[in-house]
Design goal:
Length: about 240
């Protein structure tokens, strides 16, 4: 059921989309004739889209040419999710848009980020999923930030089933920034739960988040979902921090 607050939020995003400027949000240059273009061709060309060769499991791209192959971390510790994919590397305009959205309440960047997410790769993953779930924030973090950026991104696929409350964060965790891989895993350990296991049982789930860094968060979420009975979990993020 869609609440009145959610409808109001959706309406404000629509309004925001309508008033998106025709100049580039990153350098101020003209950004094309269509309303809401929001990025110029020069800044667009700085985006490093992720493509093969990559790890077929975690989606980490490899430098140079060659076939896709499993990266060492996935060989050593196979992740619980089936595939994780990110659209672009976390740098340039992509990193700027994500940081502005999260830390400066830059909702004006939301449409651009959703457009990047809903490219052919994103659409393919969304179509294959029975249910889309955003990686949840703790309610305290939602209150201080005003929104969950993963939920905003998950709305890039309006015709696919989305549940904003099924996967919950049961305890507040430290920000993952600055922690080592092991510390990240420990930090998110037992931080998530599935509210209604029957709602995920037997389903193909697509988890959505803004950035894939060590993968600790989505690993933990995937484990919890599979334990609750999900058939398969896949992951889609706008950005990925590094090469394999
Ligand atoms: Zn620009
Ligand atoms: Zn991998």
């Amino acid at each position: 059921m869609v609440s009145c607050g959610a409808r109001l939020k959706h309406f404000s995003y629509m309004l925001l989309d309508f008033f998106l400027p025709r100049f580039c949000l990153f350098c101020g240059a003209p950004a094309g004739p269509e309303p809401g273009a929001a990025i110029c061709s020069e800044c667009q060309s700085q985006i490093e889209w992720i493509h093969s060769p990559m790890c077929p499991c975690c989606g980490a791209p490899f430098h140079g040419a060659g076939p896709d192959h499993l990266c060492s971390p996935c060989q050593l510790h196979p992740p619980p999710y089936h595939r994780a994919r990110a659209v672009a590397l976390y740098n340039g305009p992509v990193a700027q848009a994500i940081k502005n959205l999260k830390y400066r309440r830059g909702l004006i960047y939301a449409r651009l980020l959703k457009n990047w997410l809903a490219t052919s790769l994103g659409l393919e993953l969304a179509q294959a999923a029975d249910l889309i779930l955003p990686v949840p924030l703790h309610s305290r973090r939602v209150r201080s930030r005003g929104f969950n950026q993963a939920l905003i991104l998950a709305q890039a696929f309006p015709d696919r089933p989305l549940d904003r409350d099924l996967l919950i964060r049961t305890r507040a965790t430290k920000p993952q920034v600055g922690l080592s891989g092991k510390e990240r895993q420990e930090n998110v350990h037992r931080a998530f739960a599935v509210k209604d296991p029957a709602a995920v049982a037997g389903k193909n789930i697509l988890l959505i988040d803004d950035v894939f860094t060590s993968g600790a968060t989505v690993r933990e979420c995937a484990q919890v979902l599979l334990k609750a009975g999900a058939k398969q979990v896949e992951v889609l993020t706008v950005a990925r921090v590094s090469y394999a």
